Automatic annotation (TrEMBL):
The keyword Hydrolase does not apply. Keywords: Membrane, Transmembrane, Transmembrane helix. The lineage of its organism: Bacteria, Bacillati, Chloroflexota, Anaerolineae, Anaerolineales. It comes from Thermanaerothrix daxensis. It comes from the Bacteria. It holds the Pfam family DoxX. This is DoxX family protein. Its main location: membrane. It is found in: Membrane. GO terms for cellular component: membrane. The chain crosses the membrane at residues 6-25, 45-64, 70-88, 100-119.
Length: 128
């Protein structure tokens, strides 16, 4: 069971690190999208959300301070989910569906992040 947990941790941690990288390397594109959603200071918001994803991803990947990592992810997910993917505000059916899928995905990812808090610490195979 510990090996399965480690594999899952690696997959999830790398997922968040990949997305953090997108926030750092695709700032212009993501800032434009954030601006279109009415986000103030979109460059700062994109970079700040990238930092939260980086903290969360590294924490889950290494097992270092998982409570802090989960907190960073929840702090990321709450505003992003409800501002960037507010599907109820969109009239176009295709765009509405796309945003609803992203909204639900974010809720599921946030829920799965919170479940990490139920696992006794230190985690098996933690680096620190």
């Amino acid at each position: 069971m510990e090996t399965a947990f480690l594999i899952g941790r690696l997959i999830v941690g790398l997922y968040y690190l990949f997305n953090a990288g997108n926030h750092f390397f695709q700032v212009k594109a993501l800032s434009g999208y954030a601006q279109s959603k009415g986000i103030p200071a979109p460059n700062i918001a994109v970079l700040g959300s990238g930092v939260l994803l980086l903290i969360g991803g590294l924490s889950l990947l290494t097992g270092f301070q998982p409570t802090l990592g989960v907190a960073a992810l929840v702090i990321f997910f709450i505003p992003v989910t409800f501002t960037m993917h507010a599907f109820w505000k969109i009239q176009d059916p295709m765009m509405r569906t796309m945003e609803m899928v992203n909204f639900m995905k974010n809720l599921a990812l946030m829920g799965s992040s919170l479940m990490f808090l139920a696992i006794p610490q230190p985690w098996p195979y933690s680096l620190f």
